[in-house]
Amino acid sequence: RQPLGKSTNTDDNAAKLWFSIIVLATGEIYGGFMTFAPEWLSGNTSLSTGNWMYLWIYLVFFNGIWVVVPGWCLWVAWGEVKRAFAKSEKLDGKKTR
């Protein structure tokens, strides 16, 4: 007998994983935007952009990683969600015929 809360269906576990990735990646992109956009828009003097290294290496490159990686995760998750819906529609079509 399976313990409560344990699923043996790998599709169910994968669906939970992709949903979690979508939530976390969206939160990461939103958090990055809410951290830096107000600083840029308000012209905060503590956000030093005068030196090329601070601007391009620290600000753009390292913070860009926090946009590119979650963006890639969202892209892959979108493909998995589309695949799951296509599979579901295919199975529903077989059941109704």
Key phrases:
mainly alpha, 97 residues
Q: How would you sum up this structure in a few lines?
A:
The protein has 97 residues and is mainly α.
Characterization of this structure:
Helix content is 80%, strand content 0%. Helix 1 (10-42) packs antiparallel against helix 2. The chain has helices at residues 10-42, 52-96. The protein starts with 9 loop residues before the first helix and ends with a helix. The protein has 2 helices and no strands. It is mainly alpha-helical. The relative contact order is 0.12.
Assign a percent range to the helix content.
Answer: over 70%
Q: What is the multimeric organization of the chains shown?
A: single chain
Order of helices and strands: HH
Q: Over the alpha carbons, how many angstroms does the gyration radius reach?
A: 21 Å
DSSP strand (E) fraction? under 5%
| Separation, N- and C-terminal Cα atoms | 35 Å
Major β-sheet profile: none
Low-confidence stretches: none
The 3D shape can be described as rod-shaped
| Helix-strand category | mainly alpha
The number of strands is: 0
How large is the count of helical segments?
A: 2
Mean pLDDT: 84
